[in-house]
Amino acid sequence: MASTTDTGTLARQGSRNFNATSKCLHWLMAAIIVVAWGVGYYGGAMLHYGVSDGETAQKIWAITLHKSIATTTLFLIVGRIIWRAYNRPPELTDMPAIMKTATHLGHFLLYFLMVAVPLSGWWNSSSAGYAIPVAGLFTIPGLGGKNPELTPYLVLAHFYLSWALALVVAGHAAFALKHHFIDKDETLTAMLPKKD
């Protein structure tokens, strides 16, 4: 049973009602975002600072891997949005109205960025005339056609959106840990596998 603080902490009514599919989608998306962001940062750094002839293949590998991983999020996020629409998360209880608003705003921003970041990357690659691989299995058509004049702006958009996503994900994780270790409620454990 979840414990509460004197101020009435942020417990979730029916927090154990997250099903296996919701948990799987949550952690799969989290893993893909972290890996894609890390590989993208590495590849982007190589592009920015330049590479030696011996590192060219490594740069190409990093960028291709980043695209292959990141584009899968477009398919997963569509599935996750549909799933969430038909499987609403448990309602928040014992939470001040301003905190409820902040929580809903945070989730909206997270979903928005999970769509905007890969879309901006897709558009960026398309404008530069590069193929967009999906999980290393096939490629998808370009978005908007080749447009070198637009590419620098799309590079910046993808860069800033990616950092915004990183900050929102970090904030999401920080608040989950706060709930667990400070508020001592079930917000974090509700999304973990059930113990037998």
TrEMBL record:
It is found in: Cell membrane. It is a multi-pass membrane protein. Keywords: Cell membrane, Electron transport, Heme, Iron, Membrane, Metal-binding, Transmembrane, Transmembrane helix, Transport. It holds the Pfam family Ni_hydr_CYTB. The chain crosses the membrane at residues 24-43, 63-83, 104-123, 153-177. GO terms for molecular function: electron transfer activity; heme binding; metal ion binding. Its cofactor is heme b. Belongs to the cytochrome b561 family. This is Cytochrome b. It comes from Aliirhizobium smilacinae.
